[in-house]
From TrEMBL, chain A:
<dbReference type="InterPro" id="IPR037099">
    <property type="entry name" value="Fum_R/Succ_DH_flav-like_C_sf"/>
</dbReference>
<dbReference type="InterPro" id="IPR015939">
    <property type="entry name" value="Fum_Rdtase/Succ_DH_flav-like_C"/>
</dbReference>
<protein>
    <submittedName>
        <fullName>Fumarate reductase/succinate dehydrogenase flavoprotein subunit</fullName>
    </submittedName>
</protein>
<feature type="domain" description="FAD-dependent oxidoreductase 2 FAD-binding">
    <location>
        <begin position="35"/>
        <end position="461"/>
    </location>
</feature>
<dbReference type="InterPro" id="IPR027477">
    <property type="entry name" value="Succ_DH/fumarate_Rdtase_cat_sf"/>
</dbReference>
<dbReference type="InterPro" id="IPR036188">
    <property type="entry name" value="FAD/NAD-bd_sf"/>
</dbReference>
<dbReference type="InterPro" id="IPR030664">
    <property type="entry name" value="SdhA/FrdA/AprA"/>
</dbReference>
From TrEMBL, chain B:
<keyword id="KW-1133">Transmembrane helix</keyword>
<protein>
    <submittedName>
        <fullName>Succinate dehydrogenase cytochrome b subunit</fullName>
    </submittedName>
</protein>
<feature type="transmembrane region" description="Helical">
    <location>
        <begin position="161"/>
        <end position="179"/>
    </location>
</feature>
<feature type="transmembrane region" description="Helical">
    <location>
        <begin position="199"/>
        <end position="225"/>
    </location>
</feature>
<keyword id="KW-0472">Membrane</keyword>
<feature type="transmembrane region" description="Helical">
    <location>
        <begin position="15"/>
        <end position="39"/>
    </location>
</feature>
<keyword id="KW-0812">Transmembrane</keyword>
Automatic annotation (TrEMBL), chain C:
<dbReference type="InterPro" id="IPR025192">
    <property type="entry name" value="Succ_DH/fum_Rdtase_N"/>
</dbReference>
<dbReference type="InterPro" id="IPR009051">
    <property type="entry name" value="Helical_ferredxn"/>
</dbReference>
<dbReference type="InterPro" id="IPR036010">
    <property type="entry name" value="2Fe-2S_ferredoxin-like_sf"/>
</dbReference>
<dbReference type="InterPro" id="IPR006058">
    <property type="entry name" value="2Fe2S_fd_BS"/>
</dbReference>
<dbReference type="InterPro" id="IPR012675">
    <property type="entry name" value="Beta-grasp_dom_sf"/>
</dbReference>
<dbReference type="InterPro" id="IPR017896">
    <property type="entry name" value="4Fe4S_Fe-S-bd"/>
</dbReference>
<feature type="domain" description="4Fe-4S ferredoxin-type">
    <location>
        <begin position="150"/>
        <end position="180"/>
    </location>
</feature>
Amino acid sequence: MLNAKIPAGPLETKWSKYKSTVKLVNPANKRKLEVIVIGTGLAGASAAASLAELGYKVKAFCFQDSARRAHSIAAQGGINAAKNYQNDGDSVFRLFYDTVKGGDYRAREGNVYRLAEVSGAIIDQCVAQGVPFAREYGGLLSNRSFGGTQVQRTFYAAGQTGQQLLLGAYSALQRQVSLGNVKMYSRHEMLDIVKVDGKARGIIARDLVSGKLERHFGHAVLICSGGYGNVFFLSTNAMGSNVTAAWKAHKQGAFFGNPCFTQIHPTCIPVSGDHQSKLTLMSESLRNDGRIWVPKKQNDTRKAIDIPEEERDYYLERRYPAFGNLVPRDVASRAAKERCDAGYGVGASKMAVYLDYADAIVRYGKIEASKKGQDHASQEEIIAMGKEVVKEKYGNLFDMYAKITGENPYETPMRIYPAVHYTMGGLWVDYELMTTVPGLYALGEANFSDHGANRLGASALMQGLADGYFVIPYTIGNYLADEIHTKPIPTDDPAFVAAEKAVQDQLDKLMNIKGKHSVDHFHKALGKIMWDKCGMARNEKGLQEAITEIQALREEFWKDVRIPGKQNEFNPELEKAGRVADFLELGELMCKDALNRRESCGGHFREESQDKDGEAQRIDEEFQYVSAWEYKGPSSSELHKEPLTFDIVHPTQRSYK
Amino acid sequence: MKWSQFFNTSIGKKLLVGATGLFLCSFVIVHLAGNLALLKEDGGEAFNTYAAFMGHNGLIQFIAWGLKIVILIHAVIAIQLTFRNRTARPVKYAVRPGNKTSSWFSRQMAIMGSVLFIFLVVHLAQFWWVMHYGEIGKVSYGAVTEVGNLYEVVWFAFKEPWIVILYVLGMVALAFHLIHGFKSACQTFGLNHPKYNGLISFIGVGFFGIIIPLGFAVIPVVIFFKQIS
Amino acid sequence: MKLTLKVWRQQNSQDKGGFETYQVSDVSTDMSFLEVFDVLNERLINEGKDPIAFDHDCREGICGACSMYINGRAHGPWHETTTCQLHMRAYNDGDTIVVEPWRAKAFPVIKDLAVDRSAFDRIIQAGGFISVNTGNAVDANAIPIDKVDADAAFAAAACIGCGACVAACKNSSAMLFTSAKVSQLALLPQGRPEHQQRAEDMVAQMDKEGFGSCTNTGACEAECPKGISISNIARLNREFIGAGFSSKA
């Protein structure tokens, strides 16, 4: 039976009680304890810096050339915190409630409450580090409403919040490097966990420049390696984002939680052709002012501006009059897919819908005209003024769209389509963020975490930093307090030797295939299976097919992949091959998980489980649990269920009508 | 940070180049003001009196030697930085951006500086050396007696077309050097402010880059044409 | 369209390296510059050749990994655009494009177009931070900050650490990079307590790494994909002069 170790007692006091009773490690002993951190995104950098500040000896690893490039950097919108600076009724409880509800009741109350509780301290910490959040003229912090919440609790730094927060954490990390408390290993990839007597005691890493394998000991290992959206090949993730660290941990005994929970973001720039290497997100904030529509006629080939108003279908406004264009991400994404599948899509590929700013431009233009007292402004003048306002608010996004598509979004509606964006699933962890392997932790997007079946906008940054700055520094002590007598295990220990040999064997095997197809060939094929059959809508038949297809593809991969170059050199193709090999295993597990969960919840939509209007239908009696999968060998996994109980928030079906 | 450390950093060295450069800028103003007396057709009274004053006043002599040291410091450190900058890119690019990313003037400081240095050596040998150590005719003007007739030397020199051309070219080099030099020195001193950048640019380009070199260049040209007509 | 690519190939840091010429056809104007390299690499792999190594990750212009010197321009011809965001409509059928790695002593080539930019990390390690431990912070709104200063700090903080400034500078100077961090932190009250020591230490590290000095040509600003202004360099100079004149030692 899985024990989530949620502290007893009332929700509000769980965390404070835990903190005041948790075991501590005295400063002299901290110096003797070594911690390995994999990944230097928000979770990894903040954890590595904070643990080093406490006195632990930290080794941090990232595959990028610098810790600063982790993909947290690309987050645009903002970070939520229950500060209630706007006096609009926000509170820790409200943030907690919104997160549990937004996650479609598939997250733990205790964890989410803690997340809401520490959210304010994150903002304080970041400001102290010099993160330049947006401010009002009075000099105080500015907030905006994000992702359809009713309060303004999102802190932001233009459209680059993730970048600024990551650079804050990165600078804290670099400070610890300079103080000698952190040893930084960039261009290093973790390729396996080393276990000694059942506990995580180190890793095998590959120096990506020399190609050499290295053994590193640690009293504990933290996996902060992000999400696995790249299993779909096309996603908004960075090209290098991968599941390898998490997957190796899974194969070493860490359970994988809710792997099928994937977030598809509704506002991305559509695919332009076979050459497409990744997808670009357009901030969700665009839906605050833009209107989404498709032509009423199927296969309409007219230009957007030639389609008269009455022949346009503002399908979100039609289907969800209460929320309109601001319905949650999962709902908006599915609605776009529904229209395109039905033949109403636009653009060359017909796999896109319009996001139109014409109305917003006129609306803002009129406000501007009245502000300036120009009661008789012409339509042209109004439009010109409106464009200025839109430019002020969304200029950088419009510029990005224009660069990528070559179209002017001020004149013609933008084309958008949903794309894989975030994975709520990940390594199963308890309240202390420890996986089912003692001494092995998972933080940030890499764990299955606090977002349930759907993450709210601006909550990913919050969770990554909460885990790294304010949770792990306390919870890791509870484990390490009992490890103070464990001497560093020499890396010539048989466990390290065996682990390195296994990694070496896999690398040899990959290099020796010398097949006909590139790694990308297999990755694209996997992505297509996943997108078609385990994407925005899933059904039993498709998932079963997907599992068979993935197994066949995996077999083909191991027979026919071609990796150029040598092992002992800088070889990006070899790196990719190892990652895709793991995606080929993960993809199968995702489909299994999706197959098992015969309900629709959050980002997971099972066609068999919908109401008469085509809306997602949760089945709480059967599926109110976390799926935690145990690795039992190739294509073999055992499902463990962690039941979810809701003492405070009572699950209801979400409705946006 | 000790001073020795401060002036050994790249910024410390640039400050020395900038400070000496700005000092030399102030010098050219004074120098031009005095030289304009050459255009006065008074038989050289104004100019020779001025030259004699400059040549015998103790304080000015002190500054004049200082000036030569300043020029040397400016040149030596600039050369040092230039070599360091060269070594910072051991393998050169096959394709270069030309003027697309920076102004031509800003990239030619070392070349223009070297041209100016050569010009300066010629210039000093021709006039300053003759004035101080060479054979020079003496004239007297009332209270001022027995002063060297540098005026005559200058007028004589500028009869020669190639010398006139040399001087004009020297001033073109000065113009190019200062168009970037003044602004650059200001930037090195941290003087960059949206309210004053226009003024700095005007002084750098308009005054030091155009008016001053033009003023200098006019002198040999005018003298030359006066003598042939 | 059809293009000719002349690409710098270099096996490793010891190899001398040289240009190789490749013809690519069927280039669509909707492709990004890096996608052309993807297509070319796919072909090279199929032909049994070694694909071209280059750094890239987010492909949305924010991680700072991509770094190609294209026809004499850091990140290519588009203003304030990283290599990954450059799209092929910038080119015409038949064009020849020369692609080189960032060139600087402080950025040694690892392979082909990938270079080692760890010198930037070490400059940040020298002082590009505010010395505050987790948990030490006061309330975020306890210190109001003039919006103008906050915005200027943000503009400097937008640096993505790609190294285009170094690549574009004829002296391979890292002044724009260093000054952006010094400026960001000097503009904020939180960064004031150690502002002079920071400037001193970061400049010392910058010099130690072997970057050239700044001659104020402004090429860095012209090529910076995030539009970082050289007014930051002026601020670094002020900070550094302040440190030189008022330090206690």
